[in-house]
Amino acid sequence: MASRSGRWNLRSIAMAVGALCIGLVVAALAVLVIVEISYRFQRPDPHRAEFEKFNPNLESGKKDVSTLLALGDSFTAGAESWPYNLNSILGEDWRVINAGVGGTTITHAEQISRLRLRQYHPDVVVYQTYVGNDLLDLRHPREAQGVGVAKRIYWWMVDSGAFAPWYLNHRAAGLAARRPFDPESAAAAVKTPFAVDRYSPRDRRLSRLDPHHVERQILVEGPSMEAAWRRYRGALQRLEEQCRESGADLVILVIPHCIQVAPVYRERFTAMGARWANADFLARSPSPFVTRVREVFGDHPSVRVVDLLPTMQHAEAGGVRLYSTNDPHLTPEGSWLVALQVAVAIRN
After folding, report:
1. pLDDT tens-digit profile of 256-270?
2. CA distances in angstroms from 113 to 29, 118, 158, 258, listed in the order given
């Protein structure tokens, strides 16, 4: 009897554990579905906290002036980024609204723009795209050796077009890194000498997993980047349609990867394991990526593509450091230069 009772107890425990696991899986799937639907409809506003942080005086600010809506990733997001500088450059005739969100690509901008266009009816939309991330974020190197199972599943879900896994990861990362902006710390980070182990962990990991990932994005080369480009092009066309229906002109602002701008950055990425066949070709303007973006719209009267590569190469050659030492993002001087070029583009 004791043996039979023990077997029944083990069976009961196994059944209870199985039911619990099934319940957890169902609950997780339900959360993913709810978050996915919410993000696609942008209700409630999924980026309200960062939007209010980047635009603290929006409701009490300028009225009856031209409005510029800035969309983009971490180059745009932030209280001290190029939209902040652009607001100072344009003066009282313009209202600059920063809707940038770190870690995003064109598919996110397409979703975010629907809400912001309805809210603010801008005259000009500036979509900032980055040669170093935007295609890779649509097609990650899932097959690379060294990619863990969890990361492989996450990348597969994101590459399949799901927003929920990315958004939950984005919120978790935001909570973990929550701290006020410190200009002194930012300045110190720019001046800290380069070291491989100090550089952005993401870039170090990608350079190790896929040494040619930067080159393939700039050249839009290989099956994975061609697949990513098709998704990118479709979302970019839909973004333009949304802007046109809202009555806004579209400026596509292309920020180059730092290795395109100056040899010092190529040396740093080489030290991290990145490789390319022809560095001089990658530094040519326009890059194949920019050429493809321009071909999407041709001579469309309400769309302008601004390639920052020549201007940034000229500034770097003159001794201005535009990118941080241990991070692929811009220095304060780099953000100011970007803002100046945007001002020239919209005034022309």
Report:
1. 999 999 999 999 999
2. 27, 8, 20, 27
